[in-house]
Amino acid sequence: MGVALARAAQWTAAGSGTGTLEITPLNESLLNQIIKFAEDFSTKHPQEAAFVFREPLEWKTQLDSSVFGEGYDINEATVQSEARGKDGQPLLVLSASTLRVRSFDQLSRLLRIAMEKKLKEAQACLEANRDPIVKILGPEYGTVEGEDMSILHLFDKVKKESDLETELKMKIVLLLHQLDLQLLNSSLKQISQDVRLNPAAVNNEVNLLKNFSGQGEDTVLESLEYTSDYMFSNGCRAPPWRQVHGEICYLVIKPHDTDPLYITCSTAGVFLNGVIQKATRDIHSTVHPSKTIHAWTVRSFLNHNMLKNILEKIISVFFFFLNKPKSSSEKASKKDSEEEGKSSTVPLTTKKTASGKSKTVKIQQTSKWYGKTSSSLEDVGESSSETDEDEQPVHRQEGGTDLSPEYWGVQKLAKYVKGGDPTATVIALCSMRDLNLSQETCQLAIKDTGCLEVLINLLDTEEIKCQTGSLKILKEISQNVLIRHAIADLGGLEIMVKILDSPDTDLKCLAAETIANVARFKRARKTVRQHGGIKKLVELLESISAGSSYQAKDTETARCGALALWSCSKSTKNKKAIRKAGGIPLLARWLKCSHTNILIPIVGTLQECASEVS
Amino acid sequence: AAMSRKGMKLLVDSLTRSSKHFNKSEVECLVNLFDTLVAKASSDFAGVGFNRIVFRDTLHSAFGMTDDVVLDRVFSIFDRDNDGCITVMEWVEGLGVLLRGTLDEKIKHCFRVYDLNGDGYISREEMFQMLKNSLLIQSADEEPDEGIKDLVEIALKKMDHDHDGKLSFMDFEKAVRDENLLLEAFGPCLPDIK
């Protein structure tokens, strides 16, 4: 209670002496909760209710003696309770409109008596006794900022002495702490709904981001500028006729690898302007921030691994103000269909988690951070090493506790994969393939449950069935960018290259196909080369039947090898390695084959090898 | 008793014809092996065949198959006439499936291994029997049988296509054709290619 009162309740500035509680919805709800707590106290915890306070809670009351009935000695204007403490003093005394209460029991009775006046009474009581805990239990239990050792000391005392008194004290302390947490939680909900953006906050964030922008490799953004240099006295840079609409300022953000973004900051949030017109006046005159509030994020185009984590944290703070829990669950995209392609605000992405559950101040983000054209960048259709997938995927931060059903399915199967013998493992792996592995939730569930490590460990065993089962799954889920990186980080590539030596052809094919999927980013390709993977993949192209007839199995093996080589050949050094391993004549030999599904990767690889910049 | 050369030749010829998997010289080797085993066996069967124990040892040492339940079943499959003794014919034919069987033959073989009571269905109890030692690491707060029962359910869900709560031969065959790894789903009953 003490903490909640000190932090969450809204007090007026102290005029003379103690302040008073403002009349706000937040305070009202706090008071109601406290009242409820106190009222129920004597019924819920009768023993603790009888505990006598160290000092009485004292305040000026508006009740008069007439409301008191049974259990009280009424003597004209003074009232005393019949219940008395060990020292013979009454536990409740009302004299000259000052009330002194010395136990929870009396407190709850009083509140019940007060009926419609209880809100005022509670307010008066709390205003007069700013730290009630001190009065109830004694000065050593006062509310402190930071670490609160009082419970620990009390616990030690209880262990040593174990008399009823200390035990009661302990219970009361715990109950009050519980009340504190409850109050803080509910007040947080209220507070976070009211947060609005203000110019100072925007200025701070812009300055922060400016520190991380600039030319050069290790910056996040190329530049981040206001559109106007002039700042009005209220901190806003928007012209006054736009300030009326709540707009604060406009920004031009140039990320490193896409077109500039035009942003509008307003008290309702931050928005991205849609279509860009040449005439700047169009931008300002037709921006229509919608009345309802959308959550959005700027897509961040990171191209440096080093700053990834730092930036996540910074930007999560930045967008603290932008995420309005209330309306985030709607995916409404209010694209103003204004004619003539005038700019309109478009919320880029929306939050996924349920609103209003802001249990912690750290905002739940499920804003998706993707490289802009991640799918097209990685496309095997493009040649030339420049269109590499260079971006590092930033991890999506999961918020809330809504885990998908796939998560539990994977969790269940993971148990058998991790702890079963090969027989059980194979059954579980086969079953896992029935889950919708192409769905992202499922893929990430496999990663999050720790299944990915197990799958890669299985590859390291000598059990062919387990290896096969594991590779079948890995082949599917490595379509996901995050999974690819995770596989590479966990050392999966080395093991897969080793598997290319296995006598089992099916296993080799699967390994090659999985390598083809994983090797879609630079680091993975390098790893493959460093472990001698290129040579082994070239060997897959050597078919056993060197004659003009192409056996189906050999064709399949060669196809998988070619797919892997195609992915790997995007790196210049790999192109050289393929050439050195004698890959070109082998590739050329397969050109005579008439099956299209092998021709595509073969031709792709040859195209890559031929397009070296030299 | 050693066979005469002519008898041997006749035997080998007939076996080569009936078994589709081995050529002549291979059959000869197998027959020789058989003879050695018979010699090792006790004299119960008077040189006609060898019994369960010898069979189990052989398979154990030759193929690394260790599961007793499975080995028992394999013996019963080999022993077509169910007389407790494996004759040379049964030996060669049985090995044909184990070593060189087509997928169909292997499916039949495995199904018969897993169908413990031979009623044409693999029931939950039979699956439980075979899988009961397959969970090596269990969480302490879980009943040991629960984990296996769950695994049986998972397997059933994957393979029971006619949803009758047990696996008929059709179910099993279809499941294995869809996913080859499930051939030895309930335990290794084929030799390891190592």
UniProtKB/TrEMBL annotation, chain A:
Disordered: region residues: 328-359, 372-404
SMART domains: ARM (SM00185)
Composition-biased stretches (Basic and acidic residues): 328-342
Comp. bias (Acidic residues): 379-391
Compositionally biased intervals (Low complexity): 349-359
InterPro entries linked: ARM-like (IPR011989), ARM-type_fold (IPR016024), Armadillo (IPR000225)
ARM repeat coordinates: 491-533, 532-583
PANTHER family named among the record's database cross-references: ARMADILLO REPEAT-CONTAINING PROTEIN 4 ARMC4, OUTER DYNEIN ARM-DOCKING COMPLEX SUBUNIT 2
Protein name per Swiss-Prot or TrEMBL: ARMC4 protein
Biological classification of the source: Eukaryota, Metazoa, Chordata, Craniata, Vertebrata
Gene: Armc4
From TrEMBL, chain B:
Pfam families from the UniProt entry: EF-hand_5, EF-hand_7
InterPro entries: EF-hand-dom_pair, EF_Hand_1_Ca_BS, EF_hand_dom, Recoverin
Domain EF-hand span(s) in chain numbering: 66-101, 102-137, 147-182
Gene Ontology MF term list: calcium ion binding
Keywords associated with the record: Calcium, Metal-binding, Repeat
PANTHER family per UniProt: CALAXIN, CALCIUM BINDING PROTEINS
Protein name: EFCB1 protein
Source species of the chain: Mohoua ochrocephala
Lineage of source species: Eukaryota, Metazoa, Chordata, Craniata, Vertebrata
